[in-house]
Amino acid sequence: xxxxxxxxxxxxxxxxxxxxxxxxxxxxxxxxxxxxxxxxxxxxxxxxxxxxxxxxxxxxxxxxxxxxxxxxxxxxxxxxxxxxxxxxxxxxxxxxxxxxxxxxxxxxxxxxxxxxxxxxxxxxxxxxxxxxxxxxxxxxxxxxxxxxxxxxxxxxxxxxxxxxxxxxxxxxxxxxxxxxxxxxxxxxxxxxxxxxxxxxxxxxxxxxxxxxxxxxxxxxxxxxxxxxxxxxxxxxxxxxxxxxxxxxxxxxxxxxxxxxxxxxxxxxxxxxxxxxxxxxxxxxxxxxxxxxxxxxxxxxxxxxxxxxxxxxxxxxxxxxxxxxxxxxxxxxxxxxxxxxxxxxxxxxxxxxxxxxxxxxxxxxxxxxxxxxxxxxxxxxxxxxxxxxxxxxxxxxxxxxxxxxxxxxxxxxxxxxxxxxxxxxxxxxxxxxxxxxxxxxxxxxxxxxxxxxxxxxxxxxxxxxxxxxxxxxxxxxxxxxxxxxxxxxxxxxxxxxxxxxxxxxxxxxxxxxxxxxxxxxxxxxxxxxxxxxxxxxxxxxxxxxxxxxxxxxxxxxxxxxxxxxxxxxxxxxxxxxxxxxxxxxxxxxxxxxxxxxxxxxxxxxxxxxxxxxxxxxxxxxxxxxxxxxxxxxxxxxxxxxxxxxxxxxxxxxxxxxxxxxxxxxxxxxxxxxxxxxxxxxxxxxxxxxxxxxxxxxxxxxxxxxxxxxxxxxxxxxxxxxxxxxxxxxxxxxxxxxxxxxxxxxxxxxxxxxxxxxxxxxxxxxxxxxxxxxxxxxxxxxxxxxxxxxxxxxxxxxxxxxxxxxxxxxxxxxxxxxxxxxxxxxxxxxxxxxxxxxxxxxxxxxxxxxxxxxxxxxxxxxxxxxxxxxxxxxxxxxxxxxxxxxxxxxxxxxxxxxxxxxxxxxxxxxxxxxxxxxxxxxxxxxxxxxxxxxxxxxxxxxxxxxxxxx
Amino acid sequence: xxxxxxxxxxxxxxxxxxxxxxxxxxxxxxxxxxxxxxxxxxxxxxxxxxxxxxxxxxxxxxxxxxxxxxxxxxxxxxxxxxxxxxxxxxxxxxxxxxxxxxxxxxxxxxxxxxxxxxxxxxxxxxxxxxxxxxxxxxxxxxxxxxxxxxxxxxxxxxxxxxxxxxxxxxxxxxxxxxxxxxxxxxxxxxxxxxxxxxxxxxxxxxxxxxxxxxxxxxxxxxxxxxxxxxxxxxxxxxxxxxxxxxxxxxxxxxxxxxxxxxxxxxxxxxxxxxxxxxxxxxxxxxxxxxxxxxxxxxxxxxxxxxxxxxxxxxxxxxxxxxxxxxxxxxxxxxxxxxxxxxxxxxxxxxxxxxxxxxxxxxxxxxxxxxxxxxxxxxxxxxxxxxxxxxxxxxxxxxxxxxxxxxxxxxxxxxxxxxxxxxxxxxxxxxxxxxxxxxxxxxxxxxxxxxxxxxx
Lengths: 948, 455
Known about the structure:
Helix content of chain A is 50%, strand content 10%. Chain A has 948 residues and is of the alpha+beta class. The termini of chain A are far apart.
C-alpha cells in the first residue's frame, strides 16, 4: 500500500487535490472542482476514483452544479454500478422537484445510466414524467422510453410504456409529438412485425398538423415517419403531397430532402395525366438546385441523391443542366459527382453545351478529374447518337494535345465508341496508331490492342504493331495479355498467310509460359479451335459482337426503386440498400415504392429503359449459345502436344503437298507410317469428349439438330479382300462433329491387333480458289482389345476437316488405308456430302438475295429429284435436320418454292431453289454455288436426304 | 440516430467526446476516424465514411473536426446540418470556435450537447431556446470592446475582410450579455450576396448564379416586433412581375421559421419577433440564376501568346469594371493557374498600387481598389521550361499550354447587391424604455463565390 502510494505520487496528488476541493464547503470551489474533473475526463484521464466525492455534490439546489455532476455520473456509472445505486435516491427525489428543468434532467440522466439495477427504480418516475404537465419533461420522458427499451425491452412492454408513448402522438405540444414519433419509429424498427406505429388516415392527419408547428428537427422525424405510410389511393396521396410541399422551401436541407422523399414516393401513385403531377414535378426542381449552393459536404450528399432522382425521374431536372457545371474550386468529390449527373442529363437538346464544358474540363490540371472528363465525352457519344461525331472529333482534338493520360483515356473510350457504332469512325484509327508508343497504362494498351485486332484488315502493319507488343508479353498485365492473345488470333484469321509465326508464338507464350489459368485456358481454346476447325474458329472469334448498351452504370431498376425510398439517408449516399451496411438487422426492413393505382395504369411508365446486356469491358467475342456448344464439342480435351499447332498445315494455301510422302507410303504399302499425329493432338481425352457431348445432348436442347441423315452401314471392305477383316461403315454428323462409324469384323481364324487407319488426302479445286474438304481422322483408331475370330467391334472415329488435301475424282472419294498385325488394306468409299454441311449454314434473307444475284448464271445447275412425294413442309424440316436451311418460302402458281442455303465445312456456300409441285412426285432443284463442281454432290445429298 | 459526437483538433486530438447510446467503441473511435480520414485516397469523398458498421460524418470548421457517428441509416443531411448548427452554437456560446475556447469551456460544451441531443435525437439548435436551459457561463480569455470601431466588420459574413478584421461582436459569447445589461441597443441587418459566374473563353456567359441571405443580429434587451421592408418590386419565380420598372426577381426564397409573412405578399414586409437579448439568425435566403438585372461587375479580356519552342509565355490581361462609376470593388484578386514549372515572371502593370506575384504555381494579381467604369491592365511574361514533348510542335503558337487558366476573380462590392434587392426600412414596433433609439445598421454587400473566366 505504502509502496504504491510512493510510486504514483503525482497522479495521486492531483486526484487528492480535486478530492479536497470537491468536499469543500464553498459552492464555487465545488463547481470549479467538478469542472476540472470533467475536463480531465474528456482528455481521457481516469477520474473514476472520485466517484463518491462527486456523487456527494449531487444534492444541491444549484442547477449548474447538478448538471455537472449528472454529466460525470453518465460517464462513470457503467464502470461503477454499485456506486451508481447511491445516486438513485437523489434521482427519484429530483423527479419530483418543482422545477421542470430538474425533473427533466433527472429523467434524462437516469435513462443514460445503462445499469440494469437502476432501471427498476426508473419505472415509477418515468411513468409520472410521461404525464407531466410540462411539455419539456414529457418530451424528455418520451425519449427516455426509447432508452429504456434499448436496455430492457421486456420491461418497457410489461410496464405499458408503449401505450403511453402512442398516446403522446396526439399530444398538444409538437416537440412531444416529434420525440414520441422518433422513439416509436426506432422501437418499431426492432420489432418489424409489431404494429406500434399504427398509421391510419387519422394519425397521419395529426402528424401533418404537428408538422407545421414543430421545430425543424421534429419535422424531419415526422416526415420520415410519413414516408413509411402507404396511402389508400391516389387522392389520399395527393392530399398528403399537398400538405408536405411547403416543406420544400425550408432552410434546413434535411427537412427538404425528407419532404422530397415523401413526394417522390407518393408521386408513384399519382396519375401522370393529372395536372397536379406536373405541378409537383416543377416544384421539386428549385429546392434541389438550392442544395447545390450549400457547403461542399452538403452538396456532395445532395448530388448523390440527385443522381438517384435523375435516374428515376429525369424530367425533374432536365432543364437545370447548368447548375451541375463544375466550379473550378469545387472539391474533387463534388466535381466527379457533378460530372456523372451531367452525363445522365445529357440529351440531344443540350449536348453541345455539355460537350463544350467537358472539353474545358479535359484541359484542367487535376489528373483524376481530367480522366473522368474524357471518359464522360465517350459516354456522351454512346448515349446521344447524334453527338457521336462531335464527341469523336473532340476526342481527336484531345489526342492531339499529346498529354499522356488524356491520350490514354481517349483511346479507352474510343474503343467503346467503335463498339457502339461499328464501321463508322474507323477513319481515326491511323491517328490512334500514332500514339501507340506513349501508352503505358494497361487499360489503354488493352483498348488499343483490341482496336488493332478488331480492324486488322484495315491496318496495313497490324502484324508489326502486335508483334511489338508481344516482345514484352510477360511483363504485361493480364488484361493486356488476354487482349493481345485474342487480337493476334483475330489477325491470323483475317490474314492467315503472313501471321502464322506470330500466332504460334502467342499461343505458346499463353499456354506454356504463363502461370495465369485464365490466359492458359483462353490460349488452349483458341489453339484447339484453330487446330480442329479454323472455319468454326472464324465463326467464334470473329462473330458479330452484341452492341454495348445505351447508358452505362445505371442502377438496376429494382435497387433504384428501393433507394428512392431511402432518399435523404445514408443508403442514398452509398447507393446501396441499408441491409448492405447496417449491422444487426436494425432498420433493414425492405422498402418498396407503392404501386401505381389502377386509374393510372395506362400511363406510360417513367422508368428509365432497363439496362441491356452489361457493357462488355472485355471486348470479347460472345458467340451465340448454340454455336458455342457446337464448337466446344469439337474441341479435343486432351492436352495439346507441344510443337507447332496443326492448324497451320490446313491453312497453308499453297499447292505444296507437304505430306506427299504419306501417299507414297500408302500406295507403296510396304512401310506404313503412323497417322500424321504431328497435326492432331493425341486423343487421350476421347472418352471425356464423347461423355461431354452426351451431356450436352441431354441438357442443351440442341437435340433437334442432333443429327443429319445417316445412311445405313455398307460394306466397304469385304473380308475376302482383306485377309478376313471385314469393314463396313457409314458417316454421321452430330452437332457439328463428323465421324466415321466403323464396324470391324474378324472373319479370319487368327486374332487381330494393332489397328491403325489413315486417309488419303482429298480435295475439291476450283479455278484459283481451293475448295477442299480435308477429311482426316481426328484420333487414332481405338481398338483396345485384340479382335478375336468372329468378333465384331463398333468404332466411331471422329473426323476433322483440317487434314491435308489432294484432288480426288470424284471429289467426295475417300481413300482409306487400314493396318493391322496382318497387313495393310486399302479401300475407297464415297462419303455423302451432307456430313460436311455445317450447323450455321442459314443465310440471312438479304444476304441470300444478294448472293444469288451475285453468282453468275453459268454456275447454276438444275436437277430433277424424282419419286419424292413430300410437301414443302416435310421436305423443309427433313432437310433442316441435315443442315440445309430454308431461308424463304414462296408460292408461285401453285408451286411451292423453297429457297435454301447450306454451308460446307470449308466455308463454301451453296444456294438452292427447290420447286415442289403438289401432286407431282418429282421436284426441281436449282443450285448456285461459286464452286460449281460441288453441285452434283449436293444434289446427291438432297436426293439421299429427301428419299430417306 | 447519432451514436457519438466528438470534436478533434486539427492534429487529431480529441477535445470533446460524447457518447449518446452507450454503444461500444469508446474513444478509440475518434482515433480510428482520424486515421481513416488522413489515409483516404484523393478522389474519394471524406464526407461520409464507413467502417465496420459505423458511419462517420464530419465537417471542418475553424480548423476543428466536428464528427458524428451513427450505426443506422439516418439522414446525412440532418447530420451535416446539425454539425454546422453546432459549430454556430458553440461559436455563439463560447465566443468563437477554436481549440482554445473549446478546451476552456468543456463543461459548457457538454451541457449544450446534452440539451441539443438526447439519446442521439436532435432536440433543438436554436440559440434563443437553449438559453432557457444553459447554466454554465462561458470562460472568455480576453476582454473585448464593442466600440473598437476599427474592427467592426461584417459579423458572420465570410468575406475576405472578415478575415482581416474579425468583428468583435462576433467573438462575444451570447450569454455574457446577461451580465452587462447596460450594453447599447444595436440591431444589425445584412444583405449579403454571393456571386458565382462562369464565362467561356469566347466571352459568352455560361452561368450566373446569385445566392443571397438576409442576416439579422440583434442585441436588443427586450424583444419587440421588427418589420423589415424589402424593395417593393421584389418578386419570386419566373413569371411574376410587379410594380413599374425592372423587377427585382429571384428564383427561390426560403424564410426562417420565425418569420411572419402576413405582409409579404402585399407589401414585401417581413415581420419577426426576435426574442429578448442577443439573437443571430438568417431571416431569408434566396437565389437567382441566369438573368441578372445589372451587368456583371467585371469583364476580363485575356490574350495569350505561347511559343512552345522557346518556352516563352506572354499573358496580357485587361480587366474592365462595369460597376457604376460611383461604386467600387475592394480587395480584387485575380488568380490564374499557370503551366507547371513556370520559373520567372516579368510584369507591366497599369497602376502602381497593383501587385502581382507567382504563388503556388499560379499568378496572383492584387488590385486593392477598382473604381466603377475603370479599366486596368497587366502584361505578364513568363518562362516555361521546355515541355517533355517533342519540339517538332513548335508551330502551335496560338494554342495555350496545358494548365493555364481558368482565371478566377475574388472581390467585394460594398453597398451593392447583384440582384438589386435592397432593404427599404427596418422598424421596431416600440422603443424599449430606458434606452432611447436603438442603433440600426443596415448593410448591403456582394462578394464573389466563384467568378471564373476561362482562357
